Amino acid sequence: MVLLVTLTEYGTANSTLNTTGQINEWSDRYNVGIEVLRQVGGENYDGPINRLSDIAPDLARFTVEFAYGDVMSRDALDLQTRQLSTVAALTALGNAQPQLKYHINGCLNVGCSPPQVIESILLSTVYAGFPAALNGVFSAREVFQERGVAFTPSSSPTGNDRYERGLQTLEQVSAGSGADVVQSLQDIAPDLARFIIEFSYGDIIARPDLDLRSKELATVALLTALGTAQPQLNVHINASLNVGASREEIVEVIQQMAVYAGFPAALNGITTAREVFANVG
Predict the structure, then answer these.
(1) Per-residue pLDDT tens over the stretch 45-57
(2) Where is the Carboxymuconolactone decarboxylase-like domain positioned along the sequence (predicted)?
(3) pLDDT tens-digit profile of 57-111?
(4) Spatial CA neighbour of 260 closest among 19, 93, 46, 28
(5) Residue 127 neighbours by CB distance under 10 Å
């Protein structure tokens, strides 16, 4: 049994003595993870982990070594995109509000703006439903208020051209194949096709406060985490490529979901990515 220490002590010490007198060296993975965790978590970076010391200290170590040391530290994807994608996924999952708030704070700590955070949450209106997005926005409000962040909400695109604006956005992210989506629904649910274009693309995805690359990678993250929409995940992996994301970035954001949604979700996401990459050539 290893003597209990706080995470701060764990992260700054080189070794500790267990009750049998054996020396345990802290791993390089842990040290790398602590540095990333400090960037994401800010002043209270170790608060949630320290609360595990009396019940599951190994879970604290796994979190630092694996989630931050093995996954978040990888340089194929920047921390801002990682945090926005995590917020999008946790919002969609809807079952981890404390962690969602931690990562909303994390977004701000690594340089994301409040409007970018809100935009990543609003994606859930399309893919996970309004209750998920509402709860995510309420969590963001709490974080902004706790930090004293001055935030002025952005306005939706205005005008009566929602369909045209949505169709243009759909064509931009789909590289011209958006018309197939509309056509495929004409014989059974033409109004659903209109809703997708007007609301999903015209009202949400066309909003200006978050670039299309970040939106599509965040969408890939949340669809991977949900694990219930493989055809749509396929579409948005293609869309990510169309708006400038690299294959490596797509793989990174899918792998990251192993932390938040489990390995099966990440494995299924990677299988879909493999299919897309093979078809693209």
Answers:
(1) 999 899 999 999 9
(2) 57-137, 190-273
(3) 999 999 999 999 999 999 999 999 999 999 999 999 999 999 999 999 999 999 9
(4) 93
(5) 23
| φ, ψ of residue 23 in degrees (nearest 5) | -85, 130
Q: What would the 3-class secondary structure string for 101-167 be?
A: HHHHHHHHHCCCCHHHHHHHHHCHHHHCCHHHHHHHHHHHHHHHHHHCCCCCCCCCCCCCCHHHHHH
Cβ neighbour number for residue 121 with a 10 Å cutoff: 27
Structural domains present in the chain: 30-147 (1.20.1290.10), 172-279 (1.20.1290.10)
Q: Say if residues 196 and 229 touch (Cβ distance below 8 Å).
A: no
DSSP string for residues in 6-17 = -HHHHHH-SEEE
H helix or E strand, kind and range, residue 25: strand 23-25
**Look-up: residue for tokens 């002025």?**
152
Among residues 212, 224, 278, the alpha carbon closest in space to that of 256 is found at 224
CA of 244: how far to CAs of 78, 114, 117, 197, 256, in Å? 15, 23, 21, 22, 19
Is residue 237 within 8 Å of 273, Cβ to Cβ? yes
